[in-house]
Amino acid sequence: MFKTTRWKRLALQTALVAGLLPVTSAFAQTIQVVPGDTLGNIAYKHQITVEQLKLANQLTSDMILVGQKLYIPPRSIVYTVKRGDVLWKIAANHGVSIQTIVNTNNLQTMEILIGQKLLIPTEEQAAETPAPEPKPEQDKSAQDKPWVENTRYQVVKGDTPWTISIAHGIPLTEFLQANKLSESDYLQIGQIVTVPVHHIPQTATAGAKYGEYLDWFEAVQYLFPINATAKVTDFATGKNFMVKRTIGASHSDTEPLTAADSAAIKSIWGGNFSWSVRPVIVEVNGRRLAASMSSMPHSIEYIANNDFDGHFDIHFPGSLRHNDNQVDTNHQAAIRIAAGK
């Protein structure tokens, strides 16, 4: 198991950073405690719960002092962050914007922690409040370019950096870098780690038969992660077969799922497996991606009984060869055909 002498301190820092600070956004009102006030009567007067009031002000007890200032949150629910949650999913499920949640809870980071409590304004309340002016650097980039949102994960028994990275569809090196870990460090059960979540907006294609032209390192490796299955369609013939990405960092090292899929591949390449490249469309989770493939089996294999001894290569824009870490011009030319470029 992975160990680090810093994990308890890092977990504490994470809780402090990702925890809720007093609400100071445009949604909040401020009152001053007067003699006779209690949390109960203040909450009742403003039609909120005591829990919401305490959460908005980071109160750990029911004690308040005369003259103390309290923030009054909007009409809202209290949501407890679960495993797998990220802000955009929480916002979408509650019909509010990410910015609404950020503002209401005065979040200083997009990172959230399992067990963290968030105030989620009602849809009506959120609609009443104008959105803040975006910062210049946020005007458009999140709309049409890939972006990353960090989430938090609590280590359980059996977890390793490799299993966590595979389960979340990211490279091992990225997980290690995000957590400032080396391959010689260990994880502890209960440790809180950072897991980057990559959002890849859909892009326009040249037509219905073409695929999206997306960079391997920036986008495709997250859309088509290790252990993902996909349908591959030969661009010229329209014949298709099922595959699984089993390994590969610089491009997709891929294997046919079944013997029937291997037979389909062989027929497309004229009856024999070959290093010659062909434009293909890779369909994974509803996305059609422009790619290029050679069919020659080589090196390591993970799928048995598929009549294919090894794996084959699928390349995408910007992907590299294994032997010299260089772009393969033949593959890139075929990819452009599949993209209609």
TrEMBL record:
<keyword id="KW-0732">Signal</keyword>
<feature type="signal peptide">
    <location>
        <begin position="1"/>
        <end position="28"/>
    </location>
</feature>
<dbReference type="InterPro" id="IPR036779">
    <property type="entry name" value="LysM_dom_sf"/>
</dbReference>
<dbReference type="InterPro" id="IPR018392">
    <property type="entry name" value="LysM"/>
</dbReference>
<feature type="region of interest" description="Disordered">
    <location>
        <begin position="124"/>
        <end position="147"/>
    </location>
</feature>
<dbReference type="Pfam" id="PF01476">
    <property type="entry name" value="LysM"/>
</dbReference>
<feature type="domain" description="LysM">
    <location>
        <begin position="29"/>
        <end position="72"/>
    </location>
</feature>
<feature type="domain" description="LysM">
    <location>
        <begin position="151"/>
        <end position="195"/>
    </location>
</feature>
<feature type="compositionally biased region" description="Basic and acidic residues">
    <location>
        <begin position="134"/>
        <end position="147"/>
    </location>
</feature>
<feature type="domain" description="LysM">
    <location>
        <begin position="77"/>
        <end position="120"/>
    </location>
</feature>
<protein>
    <submittedName>
        <fullName>LysM peptidoglycan-binding domain-containing protein</fullName>
    </submittedName>
</protein>
